Every structure is written in structure tokens, then in C-alpha cells.
């Protein structure tokens, strides 16, 4: 699950792990350009641990990068392996219900009629990966890996039938989400890095996930409310 950087005193060629799905593209090197390949990235990838050992009193594991050739297997210090705790992945039914209640409430809090605020709203909330599996089934994924709703009512089962609008006052001024503008995605937080006091080796700790939820907000009044309700 981790990207790494290996250094050599000789000339190195840098390869981006992001090309993993297509296979690494190593530029042609002349005889003078000898040395090991240097891998460099800030991206974390799924791995399998094949073996364990202790080197200089430091636990190491043999790492296989999923969907990569075994040629790229390598030994890494155990502390450099990013482990995802179960509490960031799995959610219980009560916890999932509370999350969607919080999301619906946060959306309502951002539905107002202030004229000097940006119409684009971006909400970020901590979420467990399992909970995201539910909300992603409500939309379809675009080329930028954002999920989009075909219609606002696709989220009614999770957020309630009135999640996308809010009547603000007795005059029946209201704010609403513009249909076709909802986009959301799962964002993995950057890991927390600390170092072993004894040897200075890095330790990577998972910090969980965020739901990034975007939409465009608009406003109306009593004259347009009836027509809005008829179409929603």
C-alpha cells in the first residue's frame, strides 16, 4: 500500500507508480547509464505480504504489489506499510444511519438565501468506506472518478424525501439544490507519518476517509415554491 523511493550512488531512472496499470515504461539506457531503477511516488497501492523477516533488529516484510509482476516484489520495513484499521472500513447499521442523518443536516445547514455567498457548496465529512459503498450505488461514476446523480430523488432512501431543499422562513423563501449539480467522491486522507525514536524509521498511520459532496445552491420565494414542489 505504499510508494517508496530507493536511492543508488549510480545514475538512476525515475518511474512513476501511477503507470502501474499499463506497466512501467523504462526509457532506453546506454551502457554508461548503469544503476538501479528509482521508484518515486506519493501514491499508496494495494499490496500482499508474502513473507516476514528481521533485519538489523527491524521487522521487514516481503511486499507484492497487486496486479504487478513479481519482478517488483521487494522487502520493506514493517513500519512503512500503511494498515487501514477496521473502524475506518466497516460501519454498523446504527453508525451508518447516524452518518446519513449528519449529512442530511449539514446539507440543510448550507441551504440558505444569503445573497453574498458562493452558490457552489462543498461539504467534507468523515465517512467509513463501507458507508460510501451505499451512496455510490445511488449515482454513476464519470471520467474524473466523481459520482453524479441522475436525479435528486435517487438519494431519498438515504437522506429523506426533502433533503435537497429547505423553506427558510414564514414568508416561504426557500433554498434548493439545482438538479444535475450533485457530485461526490471518497477521499483518503494523507497518512500521518511519525518516526521511531530508536532508529528514525518512518511509521505510516491511516487517518481515515472523507466524503466530498458538492452541489450548486439556488433560492426561490413563495411565488415559485408551489411550482417547485410540483416538480419535486
Outline the structure in words.
- The chain is an alpha+beta fold.
- It has 5 helices and 14 strands.
- It has helices at residues 86-89, 93-109, 129-136, 156-159, 222-230, and strands at 13-15, 37-39, 47-55, 58-65, 74-77, 120-127, 140-141, 147-148, 165-167, 174-177, 183-188, 192-195, 202-205, 209-220.
- Strands 6, 7, 8, 9, 10, 11 and 14 form a 7-stranded antiparallel β-sheet that branches.
- β4 and β5 form a beta hairpin.
- The model is unreliable at 1-37 (pLDDT under 50).
Alpha carbon gap, first and last residue: 44 Å
Based on CA atoms alone, the radius of gyration comes out at 24 Å
**What is the N-to-C succession of helices and strands?**
EEEEEHHEHEEHEEEEEEH
Estimate the helix proportion, in percent: 10-25%
Helix and strand content put the structural class at alpha+beta
Oligomer: single chain
Overall geometric form: elongated
Say how many strands there are: 14
Number of helices: 5
Taking the sheet with the most strands, its summary is: 7 strands, antiparallel
- The portion of residues forming beta strands comes to 25-35%
Average residue pLDDT: 81
Q: Which runs of at least 5 residues are low in confidence (pLDDT < 50)? A: 1-37
InterPro entries: Chromo-like_dom_sf
Protein name: Chromo domain-containing protein
Brief sketch in words of this structure:
The chain has 232 residues and is of the alpha+beta class.
Provide the descriptors you would attach to this structure in a database record.
18% helix; three-stranded antiparallel sheet; 232 residues; alpha+beta
Amino acid at each position: 500500500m505504499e510508494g517508496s523511493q530507493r536511492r543508488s550512488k549510480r545514475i538512476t531512472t525515475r518511474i512513476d507508480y501511477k503507470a502501474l496499470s499499463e506497466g512501467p515504461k523504462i526509457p532506453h539506457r546506454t551502457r554508461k547509464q548503469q544503476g538501479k531503477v528509482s521508484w518515486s511516488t506519493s501514491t499508496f497501492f494495494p499490496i500482499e505480504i508474502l513473507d516476514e523477516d528481521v533485519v538489523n533488529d527491524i521487522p521487514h516484510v516481503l511486499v507484492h504489489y497487486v496486479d504487478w509482476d513479481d519482478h517488483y516484489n521487494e522487502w520493506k520495513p514493517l513500519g512503512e506499510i500503511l494498515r487501514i484499521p477496521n473502524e475506518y472500513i466497516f460501519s454498523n447499521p446504527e453508525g451508518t444511519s447516524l452518518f446519513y442523518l449528519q449529512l442530511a443536516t449539514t446539507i440543510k445547514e448550507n441551504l440558505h438565501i444569503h445573497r453574498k455567498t458562493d452558490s457552489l457548496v462543498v461539504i467534507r465529512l468523515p465517512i467509513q468506506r463501507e458507508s460510501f459503498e451505499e451512496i455510490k450505488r445511488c449515482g454513476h461514476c464519470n471520467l474524473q472518478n466523481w459520482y453524479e446523480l441522475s436525479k435528486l430523488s435517487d438519494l431519498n432512501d438515504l437522506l429523506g424525501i426533502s433533503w435537497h431543499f429547505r423553506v427558510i422562513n414564514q414568508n416561504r423563501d426557500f433554498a434548493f439544490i439545482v438538479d444535475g449539480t450533485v457530485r461526490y467522491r471518497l477521499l483518503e486522507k494523507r497518512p500521518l507519518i511519525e518516526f521511531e525514536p530508536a532508529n528514525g524509521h518512518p511509521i505510516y498511520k491511516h487517518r481515515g476517509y472523507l466524503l466530498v459532496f458538492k452541489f450548486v445552491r439556488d433560492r426561490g420565494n413563495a411565488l415559485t415554491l408551489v411550482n417547485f414542489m410540483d416538480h419535486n
